[in-house]
């Protein structure tokens, strides 16, 4: 049976198949909601995916993408997007139109600057940017007030902006393996924060550790 005949298909898994193009008649799968394409050899984002208006979950981890199409914002129903382990440095401007997005994984790409397009994703609950080359965070990150989990491990951050206190729903913050020596006083306003990981190459004095613990008495904090 050809894949194009499966018109009611909602979940398709094609990971680890060494493919670099999508199967023939892929556009017939208009009811597709979940698509797994991780660990393949895509160098270019398949244009066919942009026609899948019912798509809610896209796993594109560990391919070879260097850029995303400008029309990516067409995927208005996308809730979960995984792009771990590609070669992305920037995002297209239409990325800010993905207003249904709740979970985004950009781990282990090549971002040196926090993508400004993320600031518009007001429904985002989980944001993963581990293993990039970020030097700083914009204060506007505080506008992502639905964030519950934020991964920033393994970057080059030297400070955390004061706008962080606006993330009132934040429960877990991962900052290990950066270049931090202090945290802003505003971190203490994160009343729902349950877990703060500061392990690794960060360098906090004993006095600073005590200060952070006093700011967040109900939070589980991990130093070295």
From TrEMBL:
Keywords: Leucine-rich repeat, Repeat. It holds the Pfam family LRR_8. It comes from the Bacteria. InterPro entries: Leu-rich_rpt, Leu-rich_rpt_typical-subtyp, LRR_dom_sf, LRR_domain-containing, LRR_R13L4/SHOC2-like. Residues 24-130 form the Disease resistance R13L4/SHOC-2-like LRR domain. One of its GO terms (cellular component) is cytoplasm. The keyword Chaperone does not apply. The keyword DNA repair does not apply. This is Leucine rich repeat protein.
């Amino acid at each position: 049976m050809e894949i194009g005949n499966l018109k009611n298909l909602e979940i398709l898994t094609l990971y680890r198949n060494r493919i670099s193009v999508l199967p023939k008649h892929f556009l017939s799968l208009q009811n597709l909601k979940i698509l797994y394409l991780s660990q393949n050899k895509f160098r270019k984002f398949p244009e066919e995916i942009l026609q899948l208006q019912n798509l809610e979950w896209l796993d594109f981890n560990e391919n070879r993408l260097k850029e995303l199409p400008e029309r990516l914002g067409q995927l208005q129903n996308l809730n979960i997007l995984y792009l771990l382990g590609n070669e992305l440095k920037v995002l297209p401007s239409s990325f800010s139109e993905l207003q249904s997005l709740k979970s985004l994984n950009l781990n282990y790409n090549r971002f040196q600057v926090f993508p400004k397009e993320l600031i518009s994703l007001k429904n985002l609950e989980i944001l993963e940017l581990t293993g990039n080359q970020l030097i700083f965070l914009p204060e506007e990150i505080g506008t992502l007030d639905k964030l519950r989990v934020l991964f920033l491990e393994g970057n080059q951050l030297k400070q955390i902006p004061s706008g962080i206190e606006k993330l009132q729903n934040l429960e877990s913050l991962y900052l290990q393996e950066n270049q931090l020596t202090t945290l802003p006083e505003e971190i203490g306003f994160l009343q729902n924060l349950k877990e703060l990981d500061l392990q690794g190459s960060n360098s906090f004095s004993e006095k600073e550790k005590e200060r952070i613990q006093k700011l967040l008495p109900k939070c589980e904090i991990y130093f070295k």
